[in-house]
Design goal:
Helix content is 31%, strand content 26%. The protein is an alpha+beta fold. The strands form nine sheets. Strands 13, 14, 15, 18, 23, 24, 31, 34 and 35 form a nine-stranded mixed sheet that branches.
Length: 686
Amino acid sequence: MTQTTEENRKVRVACDVGGTFTDICVLSEATGLMHVAKVPTTPDPIDGVLAGIEAGGVDLNDLLLFKHGTTLATNALITRRFPPAVMVTTKGFRDTIEIRRGNRDDLWDTYKEMAKPYIRRRDRLVVTERVDYSGAIVAPLDEAEAAELARVIKKRGVKTVAICFANAFMNPANERRMRDVLAEALPDATISISISSDIMPEIFEHERFSTTVANAVLAPVVGGYASRLQARMKDGGYKEDVLLLHSGGGVMTAKMAEQYAARLAASGIAAGAIASRFVAEQAGFKNSIGLDMGGTSTDVSLCDDGQIQITKEWFVEYGYPICFPSIEVLTIGAGGGSLAWMDAANSLRNGPQSAGSTPGPACYGRGGENPTNCDANVVLGRLSASLAGGKVSLDEGLATEAIRKGVAEPLDMSVEDAALAILRVANANMADAVRLLSIRRGYDPRDFALVAFGGAGPLHGAALAKDLSIPVVLVPPNPGVTSALGCLLVDIQHDVSQMYLSKAADVNVADLEETFRQLEIEGRARLVTEGVAPENMVFQRKIDMRYLGQWRALSINISTPVTSLDEAIAYFHEEHGREHNYSRPGAPVEIYRVSVIATGVTPKAKFADFEPVDAEPTPVATRRVRFDELPEAVDAPVYDRAELKAGMKVAGPAVIDQLDSTVLVPPGVTAAVDRSLTLVMRIPQA
């Protein structure tokens, strides 16, 4: 039976809003084919989102599903552009978020100022109440003081409140009563209230308070944005929920995003890690390292046996942790626009300073005078005379002059050698980042495939893989918009946790099973709120364990139902040995926390699978290119990525140009196009 024209128009769209560009991925429901669009990010990001959908040729009436990653929350925390907020806390705990942990970003620079808390001291109000370590109420909430605080908050016109009481994770009664007092006193006000026992019911006051405060200040920003986007999409004809990507690698509805707003503070970087895993699995690799290199920074992620690494503590500004589970991504200041500079010892450095988009690299001709990685690639012939389909022209003369003044003359070398040195330093910085996320954690890079994406990643992927002895580099079909692809691949997901401090040997298995059951009930309730049908709900149980007396915990999967902890304990010893190079199987183990990942599976469209062709690719041009492996520049064939079909192979030295990136294929490397149109580069091993 042939599908109707209307059915053929149905598409799924993912959108990733960055600081410079808004990327759109459009996937056809009928054919599995994907196409992309890229538009400038607008002052109101919603305008850019809608413009991107239009540029992708999509009618909102034909849109089956829309998923969205955004830097809105991250930027709000960095710029401090959020509505005034108030924190209500236990007497004596007013300065918890300012005292922090006493550690510093730069341990040796005692004069370096720490960032100020997100809520200033005059807006941190105190009330009499107390819960002890066991959860017993030592002092109930002082109702008169609570009512007075409600009056003050109403008078100040505050729109968002964080309620953070000591030991509320053991007993939330006082926090909930404070929330009720505010709701009763402000019945007509539009006010968002975040309580720490709901946001993060876990031990350690600073981390719990910090996470709740971040959630509170972001709630009006995220909630307002999400509701406006939902309304404008609906007005245009879109009938389903807008789904927003969160830090844990799932999505949630606009309604839930307001309640857990801080989860969006790592939305953008999570999308790239998810897409990296997908590209690797499509090519047949369960182990992969993602290298997302853009204009300013590089994000590195790791996937082991199909599992992306997760961290339970991260931050946008040092000292103010957000403890929602998040995909672990290591970000360094190495991008196409990273500056090459000489330090006081006349040694060559690269980044983290960047030319940014204004003025940009010297070759852009917008006034930039300092050499960058982009300028080095232009001088070496690795980049063509223009980017983004001719929208950005590159001036080799300006790039040459910048490198001559900034690097070649101080180091007394030729401009070409200076350009090679710039890129080698940049590659060394990125290789160190990969080592930190792999070798330092007990993973051997030789067991992984490197997924190189972002606008600049495919230029550096092969050199980086060679340095790390990684045997395979994968370049997705659209490297520059791969993060948007990541948004398209995720399900609705919530993480629900609870403290469970007990020696593993003393655990009552029936009691632990009941705890998990209660967490699953809460997770199920959240999924129901988001409209997920029961048959589409999946629950994954995890248990955080540590050696008795230590504070570092590892998250271990546990089966359903819980009948014994023996297998989980054995796996904990194994994982501890891998990650910390230390394991004591006979030592007592403590359970620290239990959690449930509640997933609402969303419908997935199948991506197109292309039949390989038996044909040789034809170059569209030749270009003088200098490769690290050769003593001088050679005339390298240049291929158009759009003309490369499944089954074709490109032998290096060669360059593959495309709209959103450039792929460098060094001598001795062969790049084959697989059935998903991913380039698979095999790197010779020494």
